[in-house]
Fold these 3 entries.
Entry 1:
Amino acid sequence: MAQAPPPRRVAPPAGCGMIPDMGTGRRRVLVVEDETGIVEPVVAALEREGFTPVVAGTLEEARAAFEAEAPDIVLLDVMLPDGSGFDLCRDLRRTSDVPVIMVTARGDEMDRIVGLEIGADDYVVKPFSARELVARVRAVLRRFEATSRVEAPAEAVAIAVGGVRLDTARRQATLDGEPLELSRKEYELLTLLMRNAGAVVTREQAIEEVWDTNWFGSTKTLDVHVSGLRKKLGDDPTAPTYIHTARGVGFRFAGADELEAGAATP
Ligand code: CA
């Protein structure tokens, strides 16, 4: 086996000059993909739309490029020559909340669900148009940056319902004092539900607020996240304490009074 080449930094198009990325608002997109036929149009579209693409063809290259380039967002193929994109996504999530869009094979719904469960923000299904991909990149970045602004310490609040507590300054959720390991989307969904504790949050509202108004994926994504949250909260889906299903409508986080009444009942 030949030694893996170093990450290829894609040069800016001719005529761009040597404008550094920092401070110019050009977002760096790490494209982890080994198929040249996909890489080329994606890189061209990203450059055209004002992004700075950085290409990695293997997991090893991707890890090096992630360290060296500090990308603003990662497009991550599942099937790579030296392993699975899922593994890289899991590793990234241990240390970073960089937005990740998984690139999955057509018809493989399992791949999409796994990707979202391990903390990816979105997915695209092959074959996709470069235009669709750029729209997803923009939507995910917009969502991510809006969330980062909302989380400014000045607006930080703590919300507690029953044994569940959210500290928005630290972006931390705890259950009975124990930290919960939540993906970013799980955290946002929990925040939305808890801010509306006692009231139903409709599926449409959840999709719009936690994902994006431009979301055009399956609403199954919402169910995957609700089921993930229930698991972490120790909720039995058939008799949940915290997250109740409003059949055909949406979900409702139990109200504080309801939980107290439940606790008082022998
Ligand atoms: Ca591949």
Entry 2:
Amino acid sequence: MSEAVRTTCPYCGVGCGVLASVDADGTTRVAGDPAHASNLGRLCVKGSALGDTVGPEGRLLHPVLRGQDGVAQRATWDEAIQRVADGFSRIVAEHGPDAVAFYVSGQLLTEDYYVVNKLAKGYLGTANIDTNSRLCMSSAVAGHKRAFGEDVVPGCYEDLEQAELVVLVGSNTAWCHPVLFQRVTAAREGRDGPRVVVIDPRFTATCEGADLHLPIRPGTDVRLFNGLLSFLFRHGVIDPDFIDAHTAGFDQALAAAEAESGDPAMVARQCGLQTADVVAFYRLFARHEKVVTLFSQGVNQSTSGTDKVNAIINCHLATARIGRPGMGPFSITGQPNAMGGREVGGLSNMLAAHLELGEPAHRDIVQAFWQSPHIAGTPGLKAVELFDAVGEGRIKALWIMATNPAVSLPDADKVRAALARCELVVCSDIVERTDTNAYAHVLLPALGWGEKDGTVTSSERRISRQRPFLPAPGEARADWRAVCEVAKRMGFERGFEFAHPHEIFVEHAQLTAFRNREPLADGVPAARRQLQLGPLAKLDRRAYDALAPVQWPVTEQGAGTPRLFADGRFSHADGRARFVTTASRAPAHAADREYPLVLNTGRIRDQWHTMTRTARSPRLNNHIGEPFVDMHPHDALRSGVREGSLARVVSRWGSMVARVRHGGGILAGTVFAPIHWSDQFASDARVGGVVNPAVDPVSGEPEFKHTPVRVEPF
Ligand code: SF4
């Protein structure tokens, strides 16, 4: 057996440390890394099955070019790089930089993310680069920026164990972030473990054993948390000294909350809850100083997702429950490197180092650092509108990396039509066949987990190394290398001379320190950005290879920072956090006679995204083997379907086929279907084709949790 390599799980945002080794017969063995602070040796069932997913079956092993006749043929890397560079250069020359775009992924390593953003925003001069992280946590990003002045998660996982009360909102933590849930559960086995409240329309595995479950009516979270703010004020639980010294906007936010949600009985009616349960939740929150409110996709994936995030943060600011052990609002990210992507400007409205693309002074900082020929002048298109622009012919070349938008985006049939008309579609992927790769003119073989070399950042701001322990199969290459080669062929000789991910990481770390803390040229006081990796810029190659997991901001001594804002100073230029006035509003599309049920979507325990890796593991497939739609028995009866039968789920945007289940715990009037299946694994089973494309007006995050549908016999 080979010596165990310390690396990081490539699935959810918990970012568990993994010890990986290879037997003499080629079998990959994995175990939780007891030295990694995120998981302390634990792994969930998906992480434990990683060894099943790394074989050569189905891998894309060499570049492929599709000719005008539609025939796909093996090509050399040289031919493929030239085709991409020529295509992008021609389209930029004929139609301008905004006619090209990139759609990337929270699966990329930070180093990959950094160079593709640099090429797009600094060299091509377009901000049309967005990421599938837009679909999962962009509302949290926008909420953090509004409240704190920067996209930061204030706390750390230990807070969940040190809390007296953990509130889980819109999160089936037991299935979607299992190791975190295990940590909470283990803490509850002690005498002083936290009490747990779950706020979720469904009764999920997370609710089993909770002290209180609020089966909230979908879309009404803002009202519930505005009601909490009002309750805290009326019961004298707020902290006026903290509010005066460290925040702004409290009076306006409180007035709006009072006007809308001052009466718990009314809140209960609007949220579809029992008044006694609402009051019980409010009392628990009021009585416990140490409260962590952990939230996930049930909050973010909504047309009022950003307001939901801020309604939660408002309650923590009002009580000063932030920046200290065992307390704070906590956004838990879906993907392994959603956070790292955010750090290097992975979203179309962001620049690297948490700088804003819409701020001229911030653009100056980045361009001065990069010494680049261009800097994108305006924020680019967000995921849904980016694919709309492809469909309308405004974007003519699109490079997709490590994601499968033909399955995962809302209104996915429209996405397919857009890809079909796009002049040049480039896909970088580890597997040959996906629903999206079917539209590629150029396929570039990428490295997978076990082969990649770089860093990821978890939900608690912890940077960990992904280290290779397997050889690259066939001609697969790192994504950063492919991007650099294309950049150089497009004439950008300077700026992309990287020979190793270490050099990219060092440049990224340098940029986080570049003119951070200095007053800006126009006299505006600089925001104090917390994303601070400056000391890591001194790492040599050996130290980078040996880098131990560390939470940014990193101190001069190289130590991490578990909690932010302990000094009450936030990242807005005046150092104050902001209360954001929020008002509840209904989801974009209401159920009606034709579409009387509301479709909610999400993950199951043992599959990941569009199953291109996890479906290779028999033990993971054993959990739930086919697409399903979970319904209340009364709704099934009214719809003319029964448990175990196949049914068609139909919305105004499309339809899918799934097997009816009465999994229990689902509100009448709602149905649930998982996001994972595609045409590759089951016929007519893409839930993305059913989901409506409405987005949050601030974050651009789609409303995956609320699409009116009907269910009919198949
Ligand atoms: Fe991987 Fe997440 Fe499971 Fe940890 S909890 S092993 S990061 S899937």
Entry 3:
Amino acid sequence: MSATNGTNGQQHPVRSRSASSPYQSVQDYLSNVANFKIIESTLREGEQFANAFFDTETKVKMYGLNPDCAEKSAKALDSFGVDFIELTSPVASEQSFKDCRTICSLGLKAKILTHVRLNMEDAKAAVATGVDGVDLVIGTSSFLREFSHGKSMTYVQKTALEVIEYLKGEGVQVRFSSEDSFRSDLVDLLSLYKAVDTAGVQRVGIADTVGGATPRMVYDLVRTLRGVVQCDIETHFHDDTGCAVANAHAALEAGATHVDTSMLGERNGITPLGAFIARMVVTAPDYVKSKYNLKELKALETLVADAVQINIPFNNPVTGFCAFTHKAGIHAKAILNNPSTYEIINPEDFGLSRYVSISSRITGWNAVKSRVDQLGLKMSDEQVKEVTAKIKQLADIRPLAIDDTDSILRSFHAEQVEGCGSY
Ligand code: HCA
Ligand code: CU
């Protein structure tokens, strides 16, 4: 039995924005909301996810599973259409080095990057794996300079220039990023970025390592940086305060070019791939639909969730089990008439379908009527109203499953309409 949809066979209408809305976003010439690239870091940032049982002692294989799995995930990411795949540093462990090599040899469309600390040994190991690009990172906030690596900004800049020169000589792309950018001294940060830009990096990155930034802070920093460097700007937002998707959107509005995403990550992760895609398919539908294989999102998220033995959260945008479920009678009625009333995203774009629940006390007769039609039962509106009252009565007493409501409908039909059976 399929319990889906309920749109009376209607085509999903185009979700156009209301021209009269005062909230309609206005993009200026720097905005990249319809022209961005995704650096997918589930195979690097995601490896820092707690359940991935990647303890520092063992530094085991990708996701703590077999190397096959890392390969499978990389292929799935590639087929989804992400522009870059970022992998764990090859110096993390022997297996990490091998995984980098293996994934580089798959001939994927996506460019393969690895993420290393700012020093020459790490940079050399990265080059040895055959990656297309190297993402360099070092902490620049006073917290990290004092309590982590203990280096001065002068040292950071000098080392950055040496390592960048080496990597350029090896013919790989270079990105230079600062950890904890939002708690770093702005003047220090800008002069460092100006220097690495002049040295010829492809991208500079800013990272909200602790997840404390707001969209407005992001907009201001990216806008300022946009005026200082010529190269692309990559952004990386942790989700500790729930702003990671909004921050990525604000960054693109301010002129950032690349967004880091991950389906898992350190603590509660960074901008999630699926939620980011959900945001962007609404902002820039043509760009997103033409570039990414949206119908693969669910399988991709399931693959990753299974690999680390977790469930996709119930309220996940798009793929959460109730993302397209409509329950309240008042919503159901409108949805059945026109899905855009209560949906900003079309489930069909993702190969999914909406579900109108009728098994509750808050259902309404329009939703029930649509289920009656789906089941091929013939009833008058009056009869549908009557059976709706019965469903609500029962649902007041105990939770109902879809099967329960279906059998109520069938029995009612048999008794009231066909005049046989017992209700
Ligand atoms: C970390 C590092 C990082 C790096 C981001 C970047 C962060 O695990 O702390 O290279 O841009 O969040 O700062 O993921
Ligand atoms: Cu991070």
